[in-house]
Specification:
Layout lengths: L6 H31 L2 E10 L5 E12 L3 E3 L1 H11 L2 H21 L6 E5 L10 H12 L6 E5 L8 H13 L3 E7 L16 E4 L1 H4 L6 H16 L3 E5 L4 H10 L3 E3 L9 H4 L18
Helix pairs in contact: 1-2, 3-4, 4-5
Bound molecules: ligand C2E and magnesium ion (MG) (3 copies).
C-alpha cells in the first residue's frame, strides 16, 4: 500500500527535473550553434490526393542531427526554440529553404504542388510575418499559391484582431493557409468563420485509431463535413493504413499525408514522389 511521500520522492523529482532543465539548456545553446553552422535540415513529406494518387504537396519538417547527441526530435527542440524565441530565426530559415527547394522543383518542370511550412505562434507576435513571406516569394520567385502556411489553434490565445490582420495580409500576398493539428487545440470553433483558411489538417491523434475507435471516427467525419461547409479542403495527417485511407476517401477527405505513402525524407528522395502513388488497394482477382 502507498507510503506517504518520503524524502526520496523529492530527491527523485529534483533529479529528474534537474536533468530536464539541463537538457533543455543544452538544447537551447546547441540550437543557436546549429542554426549558425547550418546543421539544421529540412525533410519533406509528400501529401497525396486520394482521388488520383498524385502528389499535391510536401510538408517541410525540421531535422537536426547533433554531432554527439544524435538525432533530436522537433517535438523536443521546437518547444525549446519557441520558449527562447530562436524559433523566429529558425522559422525564417525554414521558409527560405523550403521555398527555394520548391522553386527548384518547379524549374525542373514539376507543377501543381504546394510546399507547406509550419509557422510558430511566436512568428505572429512582434514579428512581420507578411513581410517575411513577401521577401521569400520575391527572392525565390515561387508563385505565391504554391506556398502554404500551417498555423495552429494556439493562435486563438492571442489578440484575435491582430492575428486576423496578419492572416489576411498573408492571404492577400496569395499564399495558402492551413490549420494544423485541427481539433486538438484550445480554441473555439467560431474562428473558423473568421479566419481565411484554405484547409484543415486533421490531427493524427484522430486518424491513428481508425477504424477501431468510433469516437475518433465520428470526430473525423464531423471535421470533414465542417471544413467542406466552410469551403475548406481537408488533409488527414498520420495515415498509416489502407483502412484509414478508405475511411477518409469515403468521407470525401481530399488529401492525406502519412507513412502509408512516405515518411518525411530528404529533398532528393522526396522528388521521386512526383511520379505519384497508387491510392487503391490491390483488388484481388474477381471470383468467377
Ligand atoms: P506537425 O506539423 O503536425 O507535423 C506532422 C508530424 O507527424 C511530423 O512529425 C511527421 O513526421 C509526423 N508524421 C507524418 N506522418 C506520420 C504517420 O503516418 N505516423 C506517425 N506516427 N507520424 C507521422 P515531426 O517531423 O517529428 O514534427 C513534429 C512537430 O514539430 C510538427 O508537427 C510541428 O509541430 C513541429 N515542427 C516540425 N518542423 C517545424 C518547423 O519547421 N517549424 C515549426 N514551427 N514547427 C515544426
Ligand atoms: Mg504541420
Ligand atoms: Mg500536424
Ligand atoms: Mg502534430
Amino acid at each position: 500500500h502507498a507510503k506517504p511521500d518520503g524524502p526520496g520522492t523529492y530527491v527523485y523529482f529534483d533529479a529528474a527535473m534537474n536533468r530536464r532543465v539541463a537538457r533543455s539548456l543544452l538544447i537551447h545553446n546547441e540550437l543557436h550553434r546549429a542554426l549558425e553552422n547550418g546543421d539544421l535540415q529540412l525533410f519533406y513529406q509528400p501529401q497525396v490526393r486520394i482521388s488520383t494518387g498524385e502528389v499535391v504537396g510536401f510538408e517541410a519538417l525540421l531535422r537536426w542531427q547533433h554531432a554527439t547527441m544524435g538525432w533530436i526530435s522537433p517535438a523536443e527542440f521546437i518547444p525549446v526554440a519557441e520558449q527562447s524565441g530562436i524559433i523566429v530565426q529558425i522559422g525564417e530559415w525554414v521558409m527560405h529553404t523550403a521555398a527555394r527547394q520548391a522553386a527548384q522543383w518547379l524549374a525542373r518542370g514539376h507543377r501543381n504542388f504546394r510546399i507547406a511550412v509550419n509557422i510558430s505562434v511566436r512568428q505572429f507576435v512582434g514579428q512581420d510575418l507578411p513581410q517575411l513571406v513577401d521577401t521569400v516569394l520575391k527572392e525565390t520567385g515561387l508563385p505565391p499559391h504554391m506556398l502554404e502556411l500551417e498555423v495552429t489553434e494556439s493562435l486563438a490565445l492571442h489578440s484575435v484582431a491582430t492575428t486576423l490582420a496578419i492572416l489576411h495580409d498573408c492571404k492577400s500576398l496569395g499564399v495558402k493557409l492551413a490549420m494544423d493539428d485541427f481539433g486538438t487545440g484550445y480554441s473555439s470553433l467560431s474562428y473558423l468563420k473568421r479566419y481565411p483558411l484554405d484547409a484543415l489538417k486533421i490531427d493524427q491523434a484522430f486518424v491513428r485509431n481508425i477504424p477501431q475507435d468510433q469516437g475518433d471516427m465520428a470526430i473525423t467525419r464531423a471535421i470533414v463535413a465542417m471544413a467542406h461547409s466552410f469551403g475548406m479542403s481537408v488533409i488527414a495527417e498520420g495515415v498509416e493504413t489502407i483502412a484509414q485511407l478508405e475511411f477518409l476517401r469515403a468521407l470525401g477527405c481530399e488529401d492525406v499525408q502519412g507513412y502509408l505513402f512516405s515518411k518525411p525524407v530528404p529533398a532528393d528522395q522526396a522528388a521521386t514522389a512526383f511520379a505519384g502513388f497508387a491510392t487503391y488497394p490491390a483488388v484481388s482477382d474477381p471470383v468467377i
